[in-house]
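Progress note, sequence design subtask.
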């Protein structure tokens, strides 16, 4: 809004200079978020790393570069991937500038604008449906954890091995388990008997509704639909579960002779998958009732912020130009270094506050917020600038800035997507990218004359 209002209201030359300020602000904001703030959050949120996972609120290893750090959930890795993908419009608009004529470059600006808008809308749709996707995925993994927990319980209490030497289900052992669970000897398991089984196992790893768990076990076993599990249904159900567990084991393991190992392996992998999805139980049930007011408050604050931005657009951008003239500092560097400190202050404060809680859940929110802010920078802000460039017939001549945005976004995006645990040493990479970006822009612009 700052650049759009100022760019549309002035002359073409003024609009060109405003886009320069805007691109500087965009590049500086992206770089600051992914370097200074990202690295600071690793330091502030660090906990002891044990078994490749940061332990919530345990920070005894101080500044150990490999022994302390933060862990995030798998959704944060997805956010990092999306952020890396968001640089595609930059590549579309930039590459033709090197080889093609002015008319073809203008076409590239239009194509990049369309791609940026499509990606922006797709990202917004993903944000709307992400909670539902998370809930479905978490629900599915909780069910798998119930399955693996029951199999582990059966393995410990079975009257014989659950698998034969050939790796097939041991029908006799499964039948004896059924008889052991059938307390009233009526040749079928009732929902109450299944509930007693689930309560007896005590799934301390997850927070789940026991009625829901019983219902899903019944759904897996009860093929007749009479809300009871007879002996044949029990044998078929356990056999199906064992087959599912076997598929998770490397092919080199002889499951027939390693029944204990493969069930333990299945249970461990399922627990790890559950942990990577994140623990959403901390959010509290009270937040659901406040969701409508939260939405209304968010919309009102967005409208207020937009109005303030529109009202002060010209004075702010003009102040940048005046300060640049008075100090003889290029306006790009003012917008690259100084303005991001103001425009990203809210993200910085909230991210550091969340990181300071030293939990996987809050660390995931912290880094997801950073990746999300950069994604919106790369898509929404770029779309506005491209629209201004196309509408006012401006020149797109920001090769150095685009290169910096692409390098930092891709490096940190790939880095965040392949690791869910970030040791303390990773912050040094983030911090190093900030001066690297400044030096690279200066060399490309003022030594090689790219812009």
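Output:
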């Amino acid at each position: 809004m700052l650049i759009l209002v100022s760019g549309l209201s002035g002359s073409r030359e003024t609009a060109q200079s405003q886009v320069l300020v805007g691109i500087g602000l965009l590049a500086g904001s992206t770089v600051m978020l992914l370097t200074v703030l990202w690295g600071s959050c690793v330091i502030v949120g660090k906990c002891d790393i044990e078994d490749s996972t940061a332990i919530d609120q345990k920070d005894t290893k101080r500044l150990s570069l490999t022994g302390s750090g933060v862990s995030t959930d798998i959704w944060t890795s997805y956010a990092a991937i999306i952020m890396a993908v968001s640089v595609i419009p930059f590549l579309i608009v930039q590459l033709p500038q090197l080889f093609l004529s002015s008319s073809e470059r203008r076409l590239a600006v239009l194509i990049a604008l369309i791609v940026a808008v499509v990606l922006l809308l797709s990202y917004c749709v993903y944000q709307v449906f992400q909670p539902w996707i998370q809930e479905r995925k978490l629900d599915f993994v909780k069910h798998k954890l119930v399955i693996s927990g029951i199999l582990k319980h059966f393995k410990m209490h079975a009257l014989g091995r659950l698998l034969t030497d050939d790796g097939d289900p041991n029908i006799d052992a499964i039948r004896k388990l059924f008889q052991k669970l059938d307390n009233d000897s009526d040749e079928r398991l009732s929902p109450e008997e299944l509930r007693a089984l689930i309560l007896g196992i005590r799934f301390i790893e997850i927070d789940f509704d026991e009625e829901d768990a019983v219902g899903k076990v019944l759904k897996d076993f009860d093929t007749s639909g009479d809300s009871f599990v007879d002996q044949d249904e029990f044998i078929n159900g356990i056999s199906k579960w064992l087959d599912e567990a076997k598929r998770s084991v490397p092919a080199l393991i002889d499951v027939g002779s390693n029944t204990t190992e493969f069930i333990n392996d299945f249970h461990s992998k399922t627990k790890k998958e559950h942990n990577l999805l994140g623990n959403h139980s901390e959010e509290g049930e009270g937040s659901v009732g406040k969701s409508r007011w939260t939405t209304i408050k968010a919309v009102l604050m967005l409208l207020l912020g937009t109005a303030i931005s529109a009202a002060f657009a010209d004075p702010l951008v003009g102040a940048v130009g005046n300060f640049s003239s008075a100090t003889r500092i290029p306006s790009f560097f003012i917008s690259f270094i100084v303005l991001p400190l103001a425009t990203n202050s809210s993200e910085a404060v909230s991210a550091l506050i969340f990181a300071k809680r030293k939990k996987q859940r809050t660390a995931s929110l912290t880094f997801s917020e950073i990746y999300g802010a950069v994604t919106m920078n790369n898509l929404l802000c770029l779309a506005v600038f491209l629209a201004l460039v196309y509408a006012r017939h401006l020149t797109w001549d920001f090769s150095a800035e685009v290169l910096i945005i692409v390098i930092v976004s891709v490096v940190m995006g790939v880095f965040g997507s392949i690791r869910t645990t970030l040791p303390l040493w990773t912050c040094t990479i983030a911090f190093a990218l900030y001066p690297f970006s400044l030096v690279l822009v200066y060399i490309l612009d003022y030594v090689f004359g790219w812009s």
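The radius of gyration is 28 Å. Work on this subtask will continue into the next period as scheduled.
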